[in-house]
TrEMBL record:
Species assigned in the record: Streptococcus pneumoniae
Pfam families, alphabetized: Glyco_transf_8, GT-D
Gene Ontology molecular functions: glycosyltransferase activity; metal ion binding
Gene3D superfamilies: Spore Coat Polysaccharide Biosynthesis Protein SpsA, Chain A
Domain Glycosyltransferase GT-D fold: residue ranges: 568-790
Protein name (database record): Glycosyl transferase
Keywords: Glycosyltransferase, Metal-binding, Transferase
InterPro entries: Glyco_trans_8, Glycosyltrans_8_dom-fam, GT-D, Nucleotide-diphossugar_trans
Amino acid sequence: MNKTIVLAGDRNYTRQLETTIKSILYHNRDVKIYILNQDIMPDWFRKPRKIARMLGSEIIDVKLPEQTVFQDWEKQDHISSITYARYFIADYIQEDKVLYLDSDLIVNTSLEKLFSICLEEKSLAAVKDTDGITFNTGVLLINNKKWRQEKLKERLIEQSIVTMKEVEEGRFEHFNGDQTIFNQVLQDDWLELGRAYNLQVGHDIVALYNNWQEHLAFNDKPVVIHFTTYRKPWTTLTANRYRDLWWEFHDLEWSQILQHHMGEFELISPLDKEFSCLTLTNSQDLEGIEELVTALPEVVFHIAAWTDMGDKLKKLAVYNNVRLHPQIVPPVLDKLERSVDLYLDINYSHVVGTILEDMKILEKPILSFDTTEHGNTGQLVFKKDEVSVMVQAIKDYRRDGRFLSCYEGSDFHCLTFTNSQELQKIDYLVKNFPMVTFHIAAWTVMGPMLQELAKKYKNVKLYPEVKSDQFEELKSQMDVYLDINLHNSTSEVVKEISSLNKPMLAFYTSQNGNHGQHLYSSEHPERLLQAFHALIKGETLGEPEKPIKVIGIDQTLDYVIKNKSSLVRFGDGEVNLMWGLPIPYQNHDLELANQLKHIVGLESDEKLVVCLPDAFDDRFVFTWWATLFWKEHMNVYMDFYKELCKGSWYGSTFISRPYIDYEDKSKAKGQFEKLKSIWENRDILIVEGVTSRSGVGNDLFDKVKSVKRIICPSHNAYSRIEEIQEAVLQYAENRLILCMLGPTAKVLSYNLCQMGYQVLDVGHIDSEYEWMKMGAKTKVKFSHKHTAEHNFDQDIEFIDDETYNSQILVDLSKREV
């Protein structure tokens, strides 16, 4: 018996005492619980004492004298005078270490770790109150031996008499009962415990209104949950954290505690075992709510609000399957959102916050009436006078996990043609649109994945080995085409579909060919869902959104040649850095990322052309592997591009990469000739990484007047940009500057351009030129210098080249970071 616990209460607080004791015994054995009281009947102790003994524990009735000094002392309205009884713990409890617990709390796990804390000669250990200064006296790990030795009871009583007089005379503000006295007497004689040992959830609504973000952000499992303030689970509906758990322990049978310790019973939150719906409202008016509640007694209806609720909603609490959550706080709402099965968009007035978007992201079905539908988030909409139809839909979903009976005879049809079993987000779409018939066709037999889909959803129809005339009939019947086939392109079929002038929806990653599809990110499928919903309602989508304008390689080169422009090229690596990620040869650097964001947002002009990947409009001019890469890249980053790229037009990043990733490689030779004409008969200064060796072993720069080089670190060059720029300025006069230095080249080129120099950022040009010269079909690694996208420069054997060595003016790589 090594855990001694003290509680205090009176006959008006036995329900709360019992709930606290249940929570202690549920999670702990071998405890001795003393209950300080004056008026609790001996009969009340019999049942808890019997259960405690079976768990190697003991419950002791400690009667305090009727005329005790504290009975007339000041206190807060929601606090009993019996709380002052803790002054007398050392008189009645002999153990040297004692845990005092208020009776408006529950224990949430084992207390072993709490009892193992060393008090370090302090009088007690406690958790700070919400003021962040004093300690809260609801949970006190007490050094009872020291209390006796230092006569703490007498000190507390003396201070109480002094303070009470000040309170009575109006000279003491913010008096908080015995908690104030304890803090006055002990001051620095206490050890601070972590918040988990006394999570004060009664202040949740105060924290929300006062933006105490840290208070509500506590995510660890609490050891003790304390229902502070007057907002108790048994006195108010206020939806603070763990309110439902208090009631779970309150309703727990004593026998179930024994069953728990025998491994035969576990407390399971009702949220995890009940079929339930959620509505978040800012209005008392919920369409059809009483009819839904009475027709569906087996369904629990959670109704939440950020504010208090009026009588009209409070009256719904008479129904056993209604749970009201007034003044809800974000952690409780988050838990409800994740736990419920459906969302009912049935409140009048405005939509509350982002609740509909949140539920859509969680893939929870949303049901609404035509008079209460908010926005366009794929709700299943019912007519106002058809509550019974919604009732049947909820019954169907509860029984089968889908809506069926009320949507037979669908008159909206969706067609998908596939060459594989993988249809992107098909389950998500079918589940959210039970009123739509999804027709899936293929020239071949279909595999088990599609067959299982059709078994699971009655609104899915399969057409394996479809005949041409049958497919023509499907095309004429369809209202929308879903281009969501992954792998094995269906571009030719999509091209045929495009001639029908019917809407075609696709994800960037599933798009087959460039045929005028409306494109969406698979990371935000709710956007495609919204478009789908609009079509069902008879709305039109208009033309697909125009992509960011990037002119082609030849057009970019012609513009640069005509205007003697400088160039800055952005690729996927720079986008990763701006997004906050490192890349193989450059760590993420916030200053670099911000510089890149500034440059990419600039308007191109005759002085400086900002270039982006020419992959916004047509990603199907590339080889199959490059097409897959750019589809996935745009799927993730398209929103980011739209946010940052404010220019009316951009040049093509691929001016120095016109060969290996293109399916048609015939244009590359002429484009390289245009590039070479820019530096023909000019003095050039190459700024490059130590492994780049651009032009070594090929004729890329054979027609220049002279070549000089500044050699830089090949990794994390941005950390040396000031040094690099200083070296360039020393030798740049009357020279065309060519930068091949990764992300650092963007900032360097921009800076030098602003100073009046012509600078071309032409990274990867050497590898592309070599591949073109050898007629390569894939990216061949070079043994004697850096190869594009072989980012770790492994196994390079440099060839000693006197011409190359003589061109080096400055070598900054010797002190590479």
